[in-house]
Amino acid sequence: MRWGFVFVTMIAALLFSILPVTAAELQAQPVWIAVNDELLTFPDAQPELRGGTTYVPVRFVAEAMQADLTWVPVTSLVTIYKDGRHITLDTANGILKTDLGEQHRVDLYTQDQRLMAPTRLMSESLGYQVSYIASGPISRIKDDSAKLTDEELAAKFKARIDKEKAKWEAEHPAQQPVPEAPKPDKVVYLTFDDGPNAYTEQILNTLKEQGVTATFFVLGPQIEQHKDLAKRMIDESYSVGLHGMTHDSKKIYRSPQTVVQEMEDCNKILTQATGFRTAIMRVPYGSKPWMPQNYRDATVNAGYHMWDWNVDSYDSKSSTRTADETYTEITNQVSGKKNAIVLLHDKKTTADALPKIIKWLKDNGYAFERIYGSTPPVNFWNDQR
Ligand SMILES: [Zn+2]
């Protein structure tokens, strides 16, 4: 392993000179990294906040986790192993692969010849939780062995962080004082079912214009008809989940195996169209009463995390449904929720209502997130698996 590291350091500079550097082009601000109750120290490349995401030198964070790391220079693949879990960073293509079979587009770049990767996705995919302590700011990677609360940790290291922050500010006089990123206490997940179809493009355009993310639960036959839209979803970093093949309750719910088979077939078509697999699914018509324990066991064993919703836009309730009715339904139901999972569909009135819906959510302080395989699932059975 040690010789591996030496080799790695020697060729790293060569390897990464060809990487895309989108994250590296954003202005960086300092951030501190803790693993459980300890604040890490980095010898050369420093962790940094870029565009709201914390990036860390991969090797040192892996060492602090006591994880094993291998790097195969020929294939540009870095794999991190921790307690039976693993992730692979495809540094040539900017892809993070999880052991759930998911692939995420991520910004991987080098700083002082060190590979930098997004902390949260990397750590959560290895089974850790990540909290963001705005007063530091500290990105804290933790598991069951963490003893301190976030507040206690911030207090313990306050003096050191203040000193280092003052030093950083002195070295970067041209930059504005760092505004503390407010921790989003209200999160919304926009989810679109039944596509891709003729209305998906308008939805994708709106999301892009508004700079917000979302999740699409797609049907296999629809992907086959609109491969370009499925590819666009992946290329523009939306999350894609499975919605099966037939959308027919008589067919899909015949047995636990038929549900699994529909998801597997849908995933296969997704992979053929985009090169990507997913580990999240949403069953047609919602999981209750259709997905009792033995059905859920089967999909969990197949590696899937099941999602329903807690806000129903009723955008498919009737053919006369208007964009304004969908907007009103959502704003009524989202109000007061800290974690809103909004069910929408790829259809014309929804696409037309979307700019107004997004504006309302932004005005009301919601941060937009997409669903990952590592996001704790929300479903009607409270099945957290
Ligand atoms: Zn549906």
UniProtKB/TrEMBL annotation:
Single biological process term from Gene Ontology: carbohydrate metabolic process
Domain annotation NodB homology: ranges: 186-369
Coiled-coil features, chain-numbered ranges: none
UniProt cross-references to InterPro entries, sorted A to Z: Cu_amine_oxidase-like_N, Glyco_hydro/deAcase_b/a-brl, Mao_N_sf, NODB_dom, Polysacc_deacetylase_ArnD
GO molecular function: hydrolase activity, acting on carbon-nitrogen (but not peptide) bonds
Keywords: Signal
Cleaved signal peptide residues: 1-23
SUPFAM superfamilies: Copper amine oxidase, domain N, Glycoside hydrolase/deacetylase
Protein name: Peptidoglycan/xylan/chitin deacetylase (PgdA/CDA1 family)
Species classification: Bacteria, Bacillati, Bacillota, Bacilli, Bacillales
